[in-house]
Amino acid sequence: MEHQLWFTAILNKLLGSAVTPLLAKIGRAPADPVHPIPNYVAMEIFVILLMLAGMVILRRQLSVENPGKFQHIAEVVVGFTRDMCEEIIGHGSGRYVAMLATLGIFVGLCNVLGMIPTLQTPTAHIQVTLGCAVAVFLYYNFQGIRQHGVIGYLKHLSGPMLAIAVVMFPIEIIGNLGRLLSLSVRLYANMMVGDLLEWVFSNPVPVAMSAAFHMAFLGPVITILAPVVFMALHLFVSLLQAYIFMLLPAVYIGMAISEEH
User: Fold this and answer.
1) Which of 55, 71, 162, 248 could form an SS bridge with 67, CB 3.0 to 4.6 Å?
2) What is the DSSP string of 3-41?
3) Is the pLDDT of residue 219 over 80?
4) 238 located within any domain
């Protein structure tokens, strides 16, 4: 049984009695009925609440004449997402900005959450990354159906020529399913390894380095710098993976709604 984080303990105390019978009804009875909510789900909820709180604060502080720093940051994120959508998707890309920006912010916050003491990185769990990948999969296919209609989208997946449809359609289906694996495993692997490296170089370093060098100056310097370097690397990878999780869905949307295949 994993150690409960403080926020997980609060959720289980408030919602555990309701969640356990609900999971039992759908055939997913928790291993621990008293604590049915795992840490990674609690961390996702924490990020969602954080985003909602940020939206409320931003809404109250919106100003055209005197925008604050938080508003500037939000405008940069939205502007960046809008430019990316226009470049990749093209005409009519504005309708996808909200979804892609929200997805990028959610993944980015989940990625860096583990850097805060007493919290964990939810995207270091395959259940979370697979859930995000499924959301992306459903969204871009829905947009493809919305653009072309059901029959039109099936024709879209079958290629430009009826003669090769028998070959192209199965390839497209396999390729689309492969995107689920690509999105989920890439993010999961990067975050899991990042968390592992940060833990390894933040815990054994003080003892190992001091014993290895037996020096009054070099040992303490490496003891301090090694965790800092790997935390900075983890932050960089976290933001990069959040960007990729915005970029690839934009590409998939562009492919799904395009008139030419």
Assistant:
1) 71
2) PPPHHHHHHHHHHHHHHHHHHHHTT---SSTTS-S-HHH
3) no
4) yes
The sign of the torsion formed by the CA atoms of 132, 138, 144, 146 equals negative
Residue with tokens 């694996």: 181
| Enclosing domain of residue 150 | 89-257
pLDDT-wise least confident of 56-65, 107-116, 226-235, 249-258: 226-235
Rounded to 10 deg, the angle between the 69-88 and 218-257 helix axes is 50
Q: Sign of dihedral through CA atoms 108, 114, 117, 119?
A: positive
In a domain, 3, yes or no: no
Contacts 24+ apart (CB under 8 A), 53-60: none
Cβ(257)–Cβ(149) below 8 Å: no
Q: Which DSSP category does 93 fall into?
A: G
Residue owning tokens 């960089």: 236
In a domain, 219, yes or no: yes
Tally of structural domains, the chain: 1
Closest of 115, 158, 123, 112 to residue 44, by C-alpha:
123
Q: Which two tokens stand for residue 33?
A: 């009925």
- Tens digit of pLDDT for each residue in 184-194? 999 999 999 88
Q: Tokens 């900075």 appear where?
A: 232
pTM of the model: 0.89
Three-class SS state of 105 = helix
Q: Are 153 and 145 in contact (CB under 8 A)?
A: yes
The radius of gyration of the chain's CA atoms, rounded to the nearest angstrom, is 23
Gap between the Cα atoms of 105 and 132, Å rounded: 12
